[in-house]
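The methods section describes the discrete structure representation at length, but only in general terms. What matters is that the chain and its backbone geometry are given together, residue for residue. Nothing conveys this as quickly as seeing an actual entry. For illustration, here is how one protein appears when written out as sequence plus structure tokens:
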Amino acid sequence: MKKTAVIWILLLLASPLLAQNWEVDMIHHINGWQGEFIHDYSNFISNTEPYIALGVPLAMGAVGWWKHDEGLMRDAVFIGTSVVGTFALAMGLKYIVDRTRPYEAYPDLIHPHSTEADPSFPSGHTASAFALATSLCIRYPKWYVIAPSALWAGSVAISRMYEGVHYPTDVMAGAALGVGCTIGSYYLTKWLNKKLFAN
């Protein structure tokens, strides 16, 4: 019994080190991908993510207002609040966890293709990308919305590792945060609408 407890305690103490080694190996591999297309695609996806994540709900809202389409405006509000709320939560978590960026922690292994000023965990780009993709899929559950949304959000996550600015767990946490916050927002909005606008 005592031996089993000691083994479990040692495994628990060693697990962060094992995870860290796995993460460093993975990001080192992704960060080392070669090719002009990969470099340009990653930079484009990474740099345009904030504009797309905010631009889509803003454009939907503008079109909805222009056409007096209340349904489209409601969708824009839901998608916009999901993205902004997720990003705000991700930024708060960054400063609570205060994790060093991989290119700063491992300068001999990770080459930064871009740099960031804030802490690493979780990935804000990935969080807001998955919030946008999830909210679009909830409101418009068609394959031609789901497929490109998932591809784009996944590309954002991988690009952040390629850029050398995030660990795998940063992007996994960001993706989970984006999906979770959006689903939570959907059910909260549904519940509030029922309570506030019930006849």
